[in-house]
Amino acid sequence: MPYQTIEVRKLTPHIGAEIGGVDLSHPLGNQQFHEVHDALMENLVVFFRGQKLTHDQHKSFGRMFGELAIHPASPHAPEGHPEILTIHADKNSKHVAGEEWHSDVSCDAEPPLGSILYLTEVPPEGGDTLFASMYAAYDKLSPPIKRLVEGLTAIHDGEPVYRGRFGYAATEKGFPKAEHPVVRTHPVTGRKALFVNRNFTTGIKGLSRLESDALLEMLYRHCETPEFQCRFRWQPGSVAFWDNRCAQHHAMWDYFPQRRHGYRVTVKGDRPF
Ligand code: SIN
User: If you measure from the C-alpha of residue 250 to the centroid of ligand 1, how many angstroms do you get, rounded to a whole number?
Assistant: First the structure.
């Protein structure tokens, strides 16, 4: 795809591209906004380097793509910015956000369209984020398994993660829990993507526990195929913007006890179909 206002350097054939020529601290012009959006649709996750963003600038960039979501459980928002999720790890951390393969908040009835993570501090080594294409995961299933999973519905539950792993308290509405098709169709590209993940998916409706666990484990391992992935090495001031409808990610926590710090905004999405 020809781009006129941005430079796009693909990281792998399936997923990931670094974008140059954009300053996210200023509102993007119409053409540049459309090109960034097209690059995201084409590459599933796009990366920007050397950015310097206030919370308001970060939120303004996110709002160009839709209304911002407030995380259903995490208490770590900077004062006055409930739409911002602080991502932080140091020598006192027992867990870090995203340390398991997942798509963000898939336990919500309308999971996010995407997330925009801006890191200000990174460890000297490690702390990369891995992203995997769920289009590739669907496309590479064999025809009989495609037919098996096409009509299935999965249950996604936030409680085991938010209460079980992180010890967060439930909001008045409790922890989010939702049912979604195992194969969803992307509302923009029309492509099919696998939509189950180790973090939030707890079962498949209508199957026995044995059948559900075995099928999910097979799908998770398939989703984690290295050929479907790219790996991003962060620098202070890097930004990653991923399409949560067709990509999963996994934050590598290989840098304990070093610090890693940044902020995420999350753009609201639609009910998967
Ligand atoms: C997340 O899941 O949003 C965290 C990703 C990361 O820290 O790299």
Answer: 7
